[in-house]
Amino acid sequence: MNKVSDVLIIGGGIIGLSLAIELKLRQVKVTVLSKDFQSAATHAAAGMLAPQAEKIPPSPMLDLCLQSRAIYADWIRKLEEITGLETGYWSCGILAPVYEVEEEFLNSPFWVNQAEIRQLQPDLSSEVVGGWWYPDDGQVDNRALAHVLWMAAQQLGIEVLEGVAVTEFVRENERIKYVKTSQGEWQAERYVLATGAWAQELLPISADALASAIAVYPKKGQMLSVRSLSSSQPLNQVLFGDETYIVPRKDGRIVIGATSENVGFTPDNTAAGIQQLLSGATRLYPPLKNLPILELWWGFRPATPDELPILGTSAYENLILATGHYRNGILLAPITALLIADLLEKQNADSLLSHFHYTRFGEK
Ligand code: FAD
Ligand code: GLY
């Protein structure tokens, strides 16, 4: 038995690593077990920080997202200071063009007309008739951020064990006693489940009453990237269209996403998926047609039935849940780390957490 830390975090994607760093900075002894860092949705994402462009309605979820967006710049500064590395954080704003105007759009303070939208972004499709401009939304290069988080964890002396898969919770009454893994048994005072789209693998529905509450399932997203031909990036901000978005990186890459597919953990890019992305993106911004394709990839969003994350205590007194971030896990990482660290450290939950408790799905 490997008797480890105060807190054992299962899953080393953006949620697990962000929480580990927050806890370590509070002097908590923390260990992360990571089955496969490269397969994390963290690497597959577009990195948009987009509570407004994603059209999250006024709700506790919007509050959570806006709070996270508000603390992002400081959080990034802290990580960049720890590591001396850059994350590509860019508060570039997000423009959401449309092909048809509806009367109600014109009353929005975020609405920009045809002339204004072309000033913000030249060379948009001639079909674009206006759109929304969200100057406070932005982006981070999520791959660079993943690397920075990993390096920050190393530099802070956090034990991150890559290639170690937790295979089973061993329980005693209402507590997790230890976990079985691909490399032996591990014990801690408390555990955090941060396994993204794979959350149900540890809590299979038939075996556990709690599991029916951990209703996380994979929602596949296919992506691709192209490369700008000029030395300067032709896009001034993210473009967020119908079922397509275009995310310019500072280094000249342009990321195009994303499909949203209920196909379980089926891997690979498909011809239909890539066709959907290319036709949507080149319709919105025709100059893309001439740019060389760099890369295709895919990943699995941790979806839940109500599209909200599952955060907070569980049916086991020493197991905390931090999963189900669906389309907004990159955005929600700093606030998740903060609120879950508070919960672990002070045992008093922020009232916002109550809206994301697993019990909302009810006993089955
Ligand atoms: P993950 O990043 O998936 O990490 C989970 C980790 O847990 C993995 O490394 C996995 O190997 C590990 N694990 C699983 N099971 C075990 C086990 N039994 N033992 C040990 N380790 C285990 N969000 C945004 O905010 N903005 C975006 O623009 C955006 N775009 C996206 C585009 C796509 C195509 C996709 C797929 C997602 C996108 N997301 C976006 C969502 C975001 O990527 C996720 O919400 C976020 O990555 C979830 O983080 P996580 O750490 O919970 O899960
Ligand atoms: N948030 C963008 C996506 O999940 O595709």
Automatic annotation (TrEMBL):
<keyword id="KW-0560">Oxidoreductase</keyword>
<keyword id="KW-0784">Thiamine biosynthesis</keyword>
<feature type="domain" description="FAD dependent oxidoreductase">
    <location>
        <begin position="6"/>
        <end position="343"/>
    </location>
</feature>
<dbReference type="InterPro" id="IPR012727">
    <property type="entry name" value="Gly_oxidase_ThiO"/>
</dbReference>
<dbReference type="Pfam" id="PF01266">
    <property type="entry name" value="DAO"/>
</dbReference>
<dbReference type="GO" id="GO:0043799">
    <property type="term" value="F:glycine oxidase activity"/>
</dbReference>
<dbReference type="InterPro" id="IPR006076">
    <property type="entry name" value="FAD-dep_OxRdtase"/>
</dbReference>
<comment type="pathway">
    <text>Cofactor biosynthesis; thiamine diphosphate biosynthesis.</text>
</comment>
<dbReference type="InterPro" id="IPR036188">
    <property type="entry name" value="FAD/NAD-bd_sf"/>
</dbReference>
<protein>
    <recommendedName>
        <fullName>glycine oxidase</fullName>
        <ecNumber>1.4.3.19</ecNumber>
    </recommendedName>
</protein>
